[in-house]
Amino acid sequence: MDLITLKKQESKRKINKGYMWALFCAVFWGIWYLPGTVVWVLNPFDEMYAAIAKASGDGMSLVVTAVLITAFNALTVMLALMLWNGVLGKYGELGRTLKEFHPCSKWFFVASIFGGPMAILGSFIAMGFIGGAFAAVAGLLYPVIGSILAYYWYGEKISKRAIIGIGIIVLGGISIYGGGVLSELSSGNIPWIGYLGGLMAAAGWGIEGAIAGKGLDIAEPDAGLTLRFLGENIIWWIIIVPILAILGFPMYSFAFQVFEPLTLLVLVFAGITFGFCYVTWYKSFPLIGVGRGQGIGNLYGFCAVIFIFLFFGDVPEWTIVLGGLLCIAGSFIMFTEDTGALETLRGE
């Protein structure tokens, strides 16, 4: 067997492994919307919403409650990732990655800004204002942003087939948002903050993926991801939550009430599912590229809608279903790309 054949076989194994990680990401991500939806009706978050709504209105109450939920989500994910790194014996690698701030770890801290206060908070806001199915499907636009940024920033290849897939995903996004807005315009009741949350999720995850792809040129994915969530926890627990408490919102009084067994169980479930969703997501980027990793991970929307229907009986609007199917079709077009086009992820 000659060297060229061996190289092609190794490339094919790498690509198949990358797609496998991205598919696992979709399943874990879809499951995460179950605890993400349930947590809104559990104490202390339901009582927090009611208490703040009396003084500041429903909109402000939902946003502030979403901040505390997102902060706890980041904390439980961080705990799951620390356990994961410990089992793999990667604490040493974690320390080395943290020390290499300029060439490496700075990218993960920047990614945490877009992934946490923008994407994950936006998704929780969309869940609170509109519902879990919409929140899941609304974020399906993120591979478009991630692919374009990765292309213009560090020259990651986008083939004609990938461009077609991106175009179909955009059409799906128009169906997801346009149909809902048109139906609510007629009723005169438009939850704009919920739609904004969906856009925040799509933009944030797309930008985060492109930034993380830069850091993963050097860093090991498990270590890099843990630093990304370390950054997010710093943002929530050292900056945003204290600022909201200073402004008069009862952040800490309700935060100390999360130790009820059911609430803790749901938060831990959210942390495990979202933590391993991110582990598999980050592992796919160096193997198949940011655009393709995000494109296949996009199947999470399909998984989430199915899980939400099976567990909660929520049937989404037909425009959301159509948009989701278009997004999945676009992802499938990217997924079935010839492996020869993936042997080199970056342009010359």
Key terms:
348 residues, mainly alpha, 15 helices, 82% helix, globular, EamA_dom, membrane
What radius of gyration results from the CA coordinates?
Answer: 20 Å
Q: N-to-C terminal Cα separation, in Å?
A: 28 Å
Strand content: under 5%
Largest sheet: none
Q: Percent helix among the residues?
A: over 70%
Mean pLDDT, rounded to whole units?
A: 85
Query: What string, H for helix and E for strand, traces the elements in order?
Result: HHHHHHHHHHHHHHH
* Integer count of domains: 1
The unreliable regions are: none
Shape descriptor: globular
Number of DSSP strand runs: 0
Query: What class would the helix/strand composition place it in?
Result: mainly alpha
Number of helices: 15
Explain this structure to me?
The chain crosses the membrane at residues 21-42, 62-87, 107-127, 133-154, 161-180, 192-213, 234-256, 262-281, 293-312, 318-336. Residues 63-174, 193-335 form the EamA domain. InterPro entries: EamA_dom, EmrE-like. Pfam families: EamA. The mean pLDDT is 85. This protein starts with a helix and ends in a 13-residue tail after the last helix. The chain has one domain (23-336). The radius of gyration is 20 Å and the shape is globular. The chain has helices spanning 3-38, 45-56, 58-88, 91-99, 101-129, 132-138, 142-154, 160-187, 192-215, 221-246, 251-255, 261-288, 290-297, 300-312, 318-335. Helix content is 82%, strand content 0%. The protein is an all-alpha fold and 348 residues long.
